[in-house]
Amino acid sequence: MEVFTYQGQELDVFAGASNWKRYWGSRLRKWISGDVLEPGAGIGANTVLLQNPEVRSWHCLEPDARLAARLARAVTHLPNCSVTQGMVAAVAGKSFDTILYVDVLEHIADDRGELAAAASLLRAGGRLVVLSPAHPFLFSPFDRAIGHYRRYERASMLACSPPGCPVESLFWLDAVGMLASLGNRLVLHSRHPTPGQIRFWDRYMIPVSRVLDPVLGYRLGRTMCAVWRRT
What is the residue range of 62's domain? Predict the structure, then answer.
């Protein structure tokens, strides 16, 4: 197995962004059910968050050995949850009802090939769910520092659509955070947000985005969400 080491250091910092996690979790949870595969599960913060009564089993994939060990400890209390070190090729031959990429696809050079491989593991009617950073013009030193290849726009996300998987939903979240990201891109040029900045964004900006985003029709935001359904 190829050795992989995750170069980002932001997982622990963002793990405490409880308002943000509850927000996007509330928007994605309705598409997460049955047997779930989560590539790039990291330290398990999202795995724990997204559990719901519609989930039958949850299989985490994490290519970084150090993170995979932490992940296994974090989800040990969850029923029917397992961890494998690796990515999608490690579970070839298995099938799932939901495959979930949370802040992962932007770290993968061949994003189209990745989603095509993932979609081949979906059962008929199964869903491929992706949450990733939006807007290439917001690409910053922080994105580069944590190994992002890209941020997505509508066209680039739709270009990743796997064969036989029409888009079911495409929307954006955190309009207020988008303005903060733009400020960082143009003014601060920060490689890493401080814990204080994350707390301020999570505590004060996310509640405003929760009110503003539906007013804007979920058409503007720092983060893009896409859902495909296999026919």
Answer: 16-229
